[in-house]
Amino acid sequence: MSIATKGEKIDNTKRSRWKSLVAGICGNLSLFIFHPLENVKTRLQANDGLRNNHLPRYNGVIDTFLTMWRKEGLIAFYRGLYINILANALSGGIFFGLYADGKKRYNYDRETSSIWLTSFISLRAGLITMVCANPVWCIKTRVTLYWNEKDKKKSGFRLVRDTVSEMYTKEGIPSFFRGLSASVAMSFYGVLQMTAYEKLSKLAGIPEKPLERGKTPDIMTFFVGGTSRCIASATLYPIVLMRTRMQKQRFTIKEADELKAQRKINIDGTMNKEVFYTGVKETMKQTWKNEGIRGFYKGCLPNLLRIFPNSGMYFFLYEMTLRILD
């Protein structure tokens, strides 16, 4: 009898992992809607005003929208959509699969378990996720920031393929792991998000087990999911920005000037500096020195505008998928 019971527990744990994995992937369907804001956010994060930056100098959210539309067209807002979906599906699938595994493995109970257990389970899932998914996020950053006047319509699979090929040929395997130190620090993103999600769910009266929540997900799941993600994102946003800067393609002043000349981009107002972001410490130092505290929060507004509805829909679809699979 005891052997059967143990076997059932193992089987239930495996089912729970796969259900959470599938639910995490399905939750990313909302990315189609909010991808333009993701691209605007990434452009602003990379907007350091330096001479060796190959992109125009953007002056806020509206100017970024207008400049992208005027110089690149609609394709600029959806460039990198497929790799973004892959990166988020991979990250969401791994994270929530490991998170569900951790809750089962360490006998988590929302009513009795401490905040430290929630943090440990989230950190464990977040750390593994960030390390595994970093190469895909690095490719996504490069694709989003792509701009070549000679082939400005390039997008989709061809752009991803060429980006991967160029990274491997010119920079080698290490290029796929740029920003890894920042990604490791971002493991706390999951800690903040899931701790806030569990606590807010409890306050909102959302039952822990999907089957206890009725036939359709409560609308509170949308607000709890969006709010918890915004808390995590706003807190760790400077780390996200530094990761983008470490992952973007590096140009010399000469290379950047040539690219800007092709696109007739005015270089007036740019700082006549050549800076390469080689690590967290150097990125933090240069950002503070050249841009001050505001430099760490460039793109934060479109990020929050994207994250709240996107994450609300994510958790809504995540919980609905779990319920269907149950």
Automatic annotation (TrEMBL):
Q: Signal sequence: where?
A: none
Segments annotated as Solcar repeats: 14-105, 113-203, 220-324
InterPro entries, sorted: MCP_dom_sf (IPR023395), MCP_transmembrane (IPR018108), SLC25A32-like (IPR044712)
Question: What's an example Gene Ontology biological process for this entry?
Answer: nucleotide transport
One cellular component term (GO) for this entry is: membrane
| Keywords, alphabetical | Membrane, Repeat, Transmembrane, Transmembrane helix, Transport
Tell me what topology the record assigns in the membrane: Multi-pass membrane protein
- Membrane spanning segments where? 81-100, 175-192, 219-240
Any coiled-coil ranges, and where?
none
Q: Name one Pfam family in it.
A: Mito_carr
Indicate where this protein resides in the cell. Answer: Membrane
Q: What is its main location?
A: membrane
Q: What family, per the record?
A: Belongs to the mitochondrial carrier (TC 2.A.29) family.
Q: Which PANTHER family match?
A: MITOCHONDRIAL NICOTINAMIDE ADENINE DINUCLEOTIDE TRANSPORTER 1-RELATED-RELATED
- This protein is called Mitochondrial carrier protein
Organism annotation: Euplotes crassus
